């Protein structure tokens, strides 16, 4: 399905400009309020233009707002590494992924949006690392196996903290047709990864599968 090009807004003027008409200078939109807003229009009823303008206008406003501020956050609170599972296990108390040694990175697959072309992607790693320093690297691969590694020196230390990685700020172009993952190299045994939040900002060209 192609992206629509028609403007979804409706009834955007504040008042009618109809010289000599009874509705001249009256509001284009009038909120139908209760009970009409709860029950809707009755069968056989002539639809009042100002009420209809209000309904279509509000819907158009929300569509326009969504188009202007399109952001999608995908949050993964409970992760399972796609690699490095020999060093990473589930902490029975916190139910979080926890490292079993000071070495051995785990790979965490990022949520994927097939066909999405974001202007930027912000990855927030929610970590609990007990005062040590954990290192994070970003990787991507084509489905045929060609891998690109982005080792930009992201690291974090502290009891509970977030690591925010803005790909746009880092000059990394997000390719939706690639597989993306973050590797987490623990600073010490017992480091935990609490979750990953991925924000796709300014999405365009999102097509249904």
Account of the 3D structure:
The mean pLDDT is 75. The protein has two domains: 8-69, no CATH class; 72-201, Galactose-binding domain-like (Jelly Rolls, Sandwich), CATH 2.60.120.260. The protein is mainly beta and 209 residues long. The chain has helices spanning 36-39, 49-68; strands at 71-76, 88-90, 97-99, 106-109, 120-128, 133-141, 147-157, 161-166, 179-185, 192-201. It contains two helices and ten strands; from the N terminus they run ααββββββββββ. It is elongated, with a radius of gyration of 25 Å. Strands 1, 2, 3, 5, 8 and 10 form a six-stranded antiparallel beta sheet that branches. The chain has a four-stranded antiparallel beta sheet with strand order 4-9-6-7, with no helix packed on it.
Question: What's a concise summary of this model?
Answer:
This protein is mainly beta and 209 residues long. The chain folds into two domains: 8-69, no CATH class; 72-201, Jelly Rolls (Sandwich). The protein contains two helices and ten strands.
What is the β-strand count? 10
Identify the CATH architecture of the largest domain: Sandwich
Percent of residues in helices = 10-25%
Uncertain segments are none
Query: What structural category arises from helix and sheet content?
Result: mainly beta
Number of helices: 2
CATH topology name of the largest domain, in short, is Jelly Rolls
Q: What is the CATH level 1 assignment of the largest domain?
A: Mainly Beta
Kindly report the average pLDDT value. 75
Total number of distinct structural domains:
2
How would you describe the shape? elongated
- Kindly estimate the percentage of residues that lie in beta strands according to DSSP: 25-35%
By CATH, the superfamily of the largest domain comes out as Galactose-binding domain-like
Computed CA radius of gyration, to the nearest angstrom:
25 Å
| Intertermini distance | 10 Å
Oligomer: single chain
Order of SSEs: HHEEEEEEEEEE
Largest beta-sheet characterization: 6 strands, antiparallel
